[in-house]
Amino acid sequence: MIFYDFAGRTAFVTGAGSGMGADTARAFAHAGAAVALVDQEQGALDALTAELTGQGHRVLPVLADITDEDQVAAAVRHTVDMFGSLDMAFNNAGIMHAPVCTADETADAFDQVTAVNLRGVWASMKHELAQMQAQGSGTIVNCSSLGGLVGGAGRASYHAAKHGVLGLTKSAALEYAPLGIRVNAICPGTIDTPMVERMISGGELDLDDALAAIPMARLGRGEEIAAAVLWLASSASSYVTGVALPVDGAYTAQ
């Protein structure tokens, strides 16, 4: 991975306990940032905190449910109280349910998906932006999906929420560009994460079919997502805001 020097800066990562969130939190820490690890799974937080502090990194574990705006606001305040600023954020936390046709999906299932994948991103952005505006600087990277760029049979609510993340991203980018605050999104393809492993083992995703649909003919890796996030969070992308960056092995280029 390309090395960035984030010494003296603070990163805030939601869904940090596993998968792309954990890999990105590691990358921020290895690049010198203090990192707030936000997740609702205590065990996952404890494990990553122990790993990173054992390597000499500055991290703050924050147990929070991003569907609760008060908890998000408290997480941002705690981060700033501990580290003095909030310079970079990766709003990554997300969920996915088993495929279901649109007419068969329950309202509860729809609400659960959108509460995390859309409202949770909105709540996170709201309080991150308020802090960044007070500072006069900052960068935010939201995690959409290839599902934010295309449709997907059986996953209407997930794709709707991920499309919504791009609307939030572009609108906030326009609002805050004059203030020197950048807001971008990444759109990961099928990445080798615990969630994808569960989908494969549970029969929701056929690995051979998935690979056949990806021009690069392999799953993505968490560290490849982290590399894209760190680039968007760094000064290397200083004139980039409001973009939806596919990181998908050319899936959406077809």
Number of domains: 1
- Give the CATH level 1 class: Alpha Beta
Order of helices and strands: EHEHEHEHEHEHHHE
% residues in beta strands? 5-15%
Using the 3D structure, state the CATH architecture.
Answer: 3-Layer(aba) Sandwich
Percent in helix? 40-55%
| CATH fold-type name | Rossmann fold
> If strands are numbered along the chain, what order do they take across the biggest sheet?
3-2-1-4-5-6-7
Integer-rounded radius of gyration: 17 Å
Largest sheet: 7 strands, parallel
**Average pLDDT, to the nearest integer?**
96
Number of helices: 8
Summarize the structure in words.
Belongs to the short-chain dehydrogenases/reductases (SDR) family. InterPro entries: NAD(P)-bd_dom_sf, SDR_fam. Keywords: Oxidoreductase. GO terms for molecular function: oxidoreductase activity. This is Oxidoreductase. The protein is of the alpha/beta class and 254 residues long. The chain has a single domain (10-191, 225-240), classed as Rossmann fold, CATH 3.40.50. It has helices at 19-30, 42-54, 69-83, 107-135, 156-176, 194-201, 207-212, 222-233; strands spanning 10-14, 34-39, 59-63, 88-91, 138-143, 181-188, 244-247. A seven-stranded parallel β-sheet has the order 3-2-1-4-5-6-7, with helices on both faces. The longest helix has 29 residues, at 107-135. It is globular. The two termini are 27 Å apart.
